[in-house]
Amino acid sequence: MAKSKLLLLTVALCAQINVLAQGGFPLATQVESAVKKQEPTWKLKGKRSSKMSAYFSWETGKSFANVFIVSYPSPETADKALDISKVDHELHSVEIRVFADEVPNLGDRNYLWEGLHNKDFKGVSFKKGRVVVHVSGSSFEVAKRFGQHIADALPDS
């Protein structure tokens, strides 16, 4: 009985993801435009996107900002994904230390983090509506600034 409920839930979730995926990932263009407008001296060095996610890499001088954005089927699913990201080091590509501090007015909720073995790797992860964003940067200031640009470009729901 439990296996059939799990199978049904999995099928329903996959169907919901497929419906969302057919609409594309228009947020990538919004994010790229917002950052270009707010940070004109930064150069876009890399960009990849799929139907449900996007990755960007910007640089200026010795500073960098990397952004990974994922759209989920619901705000509740995005909440769970943000919670999991605090302990899923694969997502950040490094082991991280999460701080209790939050950035005021950045998404629905957020957390600051830094690389456990590489203190030069700093970031902020946040959720807004059904979207989760992970920003790593050469400093907390860079990560928070890019996070705010992206949060401002995202829809509220």
Structural write-up:
It is globular, with a radius of gyration of 16 Å. Helix content is 39%, strand content 31%. It has 5 helices and 7 strands; from the N terminus they run ααβββααββββα. A 7-stranded antiparallel β-sheet has the order 1-2-3-7-6-5-4. α2 (27-38) crosses α5 (140-153). The protein has one domain: Protein Transport Mog1p, Chain A (3-Layer(aba) Sandwich). It has helices spanning 2-21, 27-38, 75-85, 89-92, 140-153, and strands at residues 43-49, 53-60, 63-71, 96-98, 109-115, 122-128, 131-137. The termini are far apart.
List its salient traits.
alpha+beta; globular; Protein Transport Mog1p, Chain A; 31% strand; 5 helices; 157 residues; 7-stranded antiparallel β-sheet
Task: Reconstruct the topology from this structure.
Layout (H helix, E strand, L loop, with lengths): L1 H20 L5 H12 L4 E7 L3 E8 L2 E9 L3 H11 L3 H4 L3 E3 L10 E7 L6 E7 L2 E7 L2 H14 L4
Antiparallel strand pairs: 1-2, 2-3, 3-7, 4-5, 5-6, 6-7
DSSP strand count: 7
How many alpha or pi helices?
5
The CATH C-level class name: Alpha Beta
Distance between the termini: 35 Å
Which stretches are poorly predicted, pLDDT < 50 over at least 5 residues?
1-24
Strand order of the largest sheet: 1-2-3-7-6-5-4
